[in-house]
Fold this protein.
Amino acid sequence: MHLVADTGTLPGEFQLKLGKFMDHEIYSDEPKHIGGSDRYPPPMSYIAMGVGF
């Protein structure tokens, strides 16, 4: 099995990140108190969900 994912910060955004895997897109953001806009879950929440799966 070969898994490839692409991640990066969106242009013009300080903390908003986009991850792509196959045909899926996942957005991640940080809380407002550390410079994000709090629109999406923070990166560590995705790690916690992955452990749960």
Remarks:
- Helices lie at 43-52.
